[in-house]
Give the backbone structure.
Amino acid sequence: MTKGVSILGSTGSIGQSTLRVLARHRDRFHVVALTALDSDGLLGEQARESGAAMARVINRTGPEGLIQAATHPDAGIVVNAVVGAAGLKATLAALHAGKRVALANKETLVMAGQLVLCAAREGGGEIVPIDSEHSAVLQCVTGRADRPALPAVPALLRRITLTASGGPFRDWPAERVRDASVEEALNHPTWRMGRKISIDSATLANKALEVIEAHHLFGLGYDDLGVIVHPQSIIHAFVEFVDGSVLSQLGFPNMELPILYALTHPERLADPGVARFDPVQAGPLTFEPVRARDFPLLTLGVEAGRKGGTAAAAFNAANEIAVEAFLMGRIRFGRIAEIVEGTLERHEITDAVTLDSVIEADRRAREDARRLCC
Ligand code: MG
């Protein structure tokens, strides 16, 4: 019997990579449902090629289409590759239905981490990260007797350090970064990704989202979560244990590997489609501190995570609006961080994280951010 997989956001970068991985393992998996925001012909083509029983265009069905794909009875695994806050309800529905959610939609955990973890506990579902850094951490701690199922606080874990490529502006002077063009910001040095996450990588907002994601997934406090710049994107995370030993996971920057692992965890599957690792070709590997002052979104986001309640949801919402405005050419690159900061200053944090409080925080933050964009 093969395992059924639904892919939310199948026409995006992660969705397409997932379909390539699944096509190499038809003896293990079959595609159940696909969703895309718009229909540009690609969704239909993917559905025909993969034999998916269900395909939903979300601009036509509304969010209900995402829920249908996420809770399809034949799907044991739901790959959530939706961009932004739109993925939250589908993640909750899949977890309530007892599914494994292979999560690329990190905004889900950032907005409502406690709610998502609670849904997994109640419904018997589980979250397995696709994000390369979190997949690396999971691979370093998997198989250890001290580590029960995710999410958990591994008692022997002392610190997690996520690596960041530093994005396209890693070595640019701060004054030049402020006026960077859309084209320059989209030109990521190591990863080929969608537009939203490429901009988030250029501002380092992506790394803030990932720190919050790691906090929820691995249960460490913010003081025990760090970020370091590693321009080659070969080492994806450092996991330090209480005895001082440090484990890492290495690989060429290719999302097909963490996607495959999210499908098979805690097992591994031979895959001729993933390029063999060559240390000589990968090196030399270098590390440097983050220029936190020049890329303020990292600190702003981590501080929002630390404050708890709805602060991280507000950070995420304001960032989505500001990135959209930048991509449409309405604001300068440097304004993204200013708009997020301004929105967070106005945000009154609600401590209780419920679906209602998160959605309301998201709505208010979007309104404030939009006003600041003009
Ligand atoms: Mg990542």
